[in-house]
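Troubleshooting log. The previous structure file for this entry was overwritten by mistake, so regenerating from the original sequence record. Sequence copied from the archived sheet and checked twice against the printout by T.R.
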Amino acid sequence: MYGALLLLPLYFQEVRGTDAFSAGLLLISQGVGTLFSRTLAGGLSDRLAPRWVTVVGLTDVPLGTLPFALANTHTGAAVLTGALVVRGRGLGAVTIPLMALVFRSLQRAEIPDASIITRIATQVGGSFGTAVLAVILGSTVRNAFTPTDTAQAFQHSFWRTQCDGGSAGAASALG
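Regenerated output below.
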């Protein structure tokens, strides 16, 4: 889920030709999606089984990433911005119920330890996924000689986020 956070700003800079500041501005739409979904996900997790809120989030993340796996140098900015809103909505919908599930059954004295463990697991898992995607991107970009080649290298890397991360995330959320 988080490995694409490395790819997205690089995509906007390398394929779309934006500067770093403009790439950051384009990524705001993902943050907006996350912001709006977090409150909704919290309320729905209290009323429904958190598992189903997580499943919806795990569906939104790949749906929001898929346009980048299919994008080329001419794909409209509105399509990509809309995809980032959907992706952000999914990230927020996954995070809140999973954290609620972790802490729901714990005694008050156990919460600090669980908080540390979840943060470490998130950081290590995110770092590992990001490193893998950096290697995939680096190995495919190395052979890119044209803007089309660079776009295809990013497409390949975004496809890898879909194929490698989705099944493991879904299994852990449903388990």
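The two ends are 17 Å apart (CA to CA). Archived copy saved in two places this time.
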